[in-house]
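USER: Write out one fold?

ASSISTANT:
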Amino acid sequence: AGIMMCTYSVPLTNATGKVYAVLTADVSLADMTERIAAICPYPQSYAVMISCAGNYLVLPPQGRTFERTEDLDTVYDVIRRNRASRGFPLRMTLEAVRATLGIVKADLFLTRDAAGTQVASALIYHLAKGIVRVIYWGNTEESVALRPMNYTAYKVFEHYASTDVRLIDIGQSTENSLPNFGLCDFKQAIG
């Protein structure tokens, strides 16, 4: 099993501003998450790590849970609601997904909030040995403040890091050949 890593890099420049090297440091995401989670400056407080682009890199679970499930109806419903709230089409019906699952191996995941409510889900197909592809993932409109997709993406990567999967295709970032810049930003933020 591999270790999920985060690479921090910064260019080193001389007095004239010319780059002469790039300094990098690789840090285990699990170690970074543990270290950030241990920071508690005041009772009932917590620390987060935010990228220079303003995306959360480390955020406490806040009671969220992540699970692999066989509950296709719930996974699909979260995704359907996500697409409807954002005005994006859902190209496969529940029946079409169910039929595909009879042919293609898939993993279904749910993220729940502290109250146990489903706030995000993912449907991922196994394309070939060691290769999976996110077909659909999304969160509910009501859960946006919890940032459940950052957590879900991290947990999906963590899940596959403990398996023989070596390539996770997180899908396209276009709709009708036009870039979805919000999706591009999200994918860049999760690495």
Q: What stands out?
A: The mean pLDDT is 85. The longest strand covers residues 118-128. The longest helix spans residues 72-86. Helices lie at 29-37, 72-86, 94-101, 148-161, 181-190.
